[in-house]
TrEMBL record:
Gene from which the chain derives: ga11968
InterPro entries: Invertase/methylesterase_inhib (IPR035513), Pectinesterase_inhib_dom (IPR006501)
Family to which this protein belongs: Belongs to the PMEI family.
Naturally occurring in which organism (per UniProt): Eleusine coracana subsp. coracana
Signal peptide from the UniProt entry: 1-24
Protein name: Pectinesterase inhibitor domain-containing protein
Lineage: Eukaryota, Viridiplantae, Streptophyta, Embryophyta, Tracheophyta
Length: 180
C-alpha cells in the first residue's frame, strides 16, 4: 500500500502537525488576557481591564497579537474616549454650571491633544512619555467634577466617569510595558 501512495506518510504527518497547531492555538490565551492578568500591581483587575478595552462589541481587542498591540489599543481607546467626552461636554455647555463645564471642556481639549500624541508614541513603541500623559489623564475627570460643581451629576455627561476607568486601564497597560 505504501508503494501505491508514496506521499501518504508525509500527508499524515502534515495533518497531524496542523491539527496539533490548531489545538495549541485554541489553548493559548489571547494577548489581551495575558496583559490584563498582569495589571494587579496597578489596581486594575483582569475583569476591569477586559471590560474597558472590549466595551465595544466591534472592537478588535481580542485580535491583538501581542502586548505592544494591546498597549496601542489601550492608548488609542483612551484618546477616543477623551474625544467623545469632550464632544459630550460641548453639548452640555448650556447647563446651569456653564462656567465650570467650559473650564472642563478646556481641560479635555488639552487632554485630547496629549492623548493623541501618546497613542502615536505607543503605536511606535515609545512608552515612557506616554505613560506620564496617561498617568496625568487619570485626574482629568476628577478635575472636571470639581470645576463643574463638585458632584453635580446633571452638569457633566456620563462619559466623564467612563473616561476615568479608561484612563486608569490605559495607564496600567502602558506602564506594564516599561521595565525600569
Amino acid at each position: 500500500m505504501a508503494a501505491a501512495y508514496p506521499k501518504l506518510p508525509a500527508l499524515l504527518l502534515f495533518v497531524f502537525i496542523a491539527a496539533a497547531g490548531v489545538a495549541a492555538a485554541e489553548t493559548t490565551p489571547a494577548a489581551l488576557d495575558e496583559v490584563c492578568r498582569g495589571l494587579g500591581g496597578f489596581y486594575v483587575t483582569p475583569e476591569l481591564c477586559a471590560s474597558a478595552l472590549c466595551s465595544d462589541p466591534s472592537s478588535p481587542c481580542r485580535a491583538a497579537r501581542d502586548a505592544p498591540a494591546v498597549a496601542a489599543l489601550a492608548a488609542r481607546l483612551a484618546a477616543r474616549n477623551a474625544t467623545a467626552t469632550q464632544a459630550a461636554l460641548a453639548g452640555n455647555a448650556t447647563s446651569s454650571k456653564e462656567e465650570g463645564v467650559r473650564a472642563c471642556l478646556e481641560l479635555y481639549g488639552g487632554a485630547v491633544a496629549a492623548l493623541q500624541w501618546a497613542a502615536a508614541s505607543v503605536a511606535a513603541g515609545r512608552y515612557r512619555g506616554a505613560r506620564e500623559v496617561l498617568f496625568t489623564a487619570q485626574y482629568v475627570p476628577a478635575g472636571c467634577d470639581g470645576m463643574a460643581g463638585g458632584g453635580d451629576a446633571a452638569a457633566l455627561p456620563r462619559e466623564n466617569g467612563g473616561f476615568s476607568y479608561m484612563a486608569m486601564v490605559a495607564h496600567a497597560v502602558i506602564a506594564s510595558m516599561i521595565r525600569d
